[in-house]
Amino acid sequence: MQKIRLGIVGYGNLGRGVQYAAKQNPDTEVVAVFTRRDPASVKTVLPVKVEKYEDMKNYVGKIDVMILCGGSATDLPKQSAEVASMFNIVDSFDTHAKVPEHFASLEEAAEKAGTLGAMSVGWDPGLFSLARIIFGSALPEGGTYTFWGRGVSQGHSDAIRRIEGVRDARQYTVPVESALERVRSGENPVLSTREKHTRECYVVAEEGADKARIEKEIKTMPNYFADYDTTVHFISEEELLKNHGGIPHGGLVLRSGKSAADNKFLMEFSLKLDSNPEFTSSVLVAYARAVYRMHKEGQTGAVTVFDVAPKYLCPLTEDEQRKELL
Q: Coil, helix or strand for 167?
């Protein structure tokens, strides 16, 4: 069996998860990790070559799909188009407000290079996006609601860590239970962003850092915290490691509506995850398989989860899929 050759760009929690996920899929293998750090300083969870970011050009033709594991705040807006100029890619860009802008940038770079890039892959955006489009199509009269958490958001935590004076941070997204119950009861409420979730931030500040400034920067950060009731707790590094060392997450997509005969329906898709990055990584590897197959069929440019047929994700043959899953 010819294996799909993967590269990992960036090696944090997500990059480590991709290594584990690739090991679970017999048709994939990780060829190399590419980092902006000193390669000698990067310790991988499984043996693999670690190369400098700028040396990935030497792997053109040796890697089928690059999986980008950087942050959405500053890494992916630049890296996705840059890497797509040489390789097929999958990224987990999750800044919902900037999805159209990111798509346009990736589309331009990939079309020019003849590569294929899948963007905003993960569970939200990603699997939750699929639930929203399917639920809304099957139940046209009603309301769709997405609730996240309680769990650690990697993108939001990363955004806090990039603030000057922050050594480390964890951000929890917390659903408002009263809002969730209103949806499940069939009320179909109109809920603002602030009414659905709160955000809790646990921050380790550098010694001597201006905590008031840090808190203000967090609470006013557009696309991340400005639209939510946000609480900031400054704690020690020891407390962060002891009480906030894991990366759990999850959430729900619900569609509440009714038929033309006024019968009520509730559709619900839920996830409960011990490790947000390890689950996201598993989704990324599945979409890397899809990108590999679709590119072999001649597709180029940018795609989202809406453009990828489920058959491309599955390691089974199409005959096996029809026999075992349909």
A: strand
